[in-house]
Specification:
36% strand, Immunoglobulin-like, four-stranded antiparallel sheet, 13% helix, mainly beta
Amino acid sequence: MRQNFTFLVILLLATISIINATPHQLYKRATQFVPCNNTANPPLLNVNITPDPPAPGASLNIDASGTSPNAITQGATISVAFIDAKNNIIGSATVEDLCSQPGILCPVAGGSPFTIPTITTTIPPIITGTALDISVIGPTGINTLLCAVAHF
């Protein structure tokens, strides 16, 4: 009887160990982009990234779209940067002229939707504790028209 009880206890402990070792959530967790936290409070830019989740050191493809409440004129840029907790840029930022992108004809009227062609950048070797900031910046370089940020 004592041997049966010991066997059942060992079997129970082994079962519990296996249950705790298996992942409980097997679904893909998509990166969540939220509005940027700055004084301008710009509208949210819709962003999808590939791969998702990002792999440190790999290439990252970014697809973005949005609707700006204000007109987007010549000289506007799209900026992509990984930043640390102190808002320092990690590596180098990607800044491209928005109006020279294929399929975008400037000026884009306020309230008109637009889609930015895929932008490719390199993911830093360590992304834990960083954020990916994607912004559409007006021609003066000061005003942010649309923005999105994802925290890793």
